[in-house]
Amino acid sequence: MFQDYLIVIFGQGRDLTPWQMGCRAFVVFFVALFFNRIAGKRAFGMHAPFDNVILLLLGAILSRAVVGASPFVSTLTACLVLVLLHRLLGWVSCRSHRLEALIKGEKIVLFRNGTWLHQNMRREYITEEDLLEEVRIKANIDAVTTIKEAHLERNGQISVIKQTDSHPSWLKLAIV
Question: Of these four, 6, 90, 91, 92, which has the most CB atoms within 10 Å of its CB?
Answer without folding.
Answer: 90
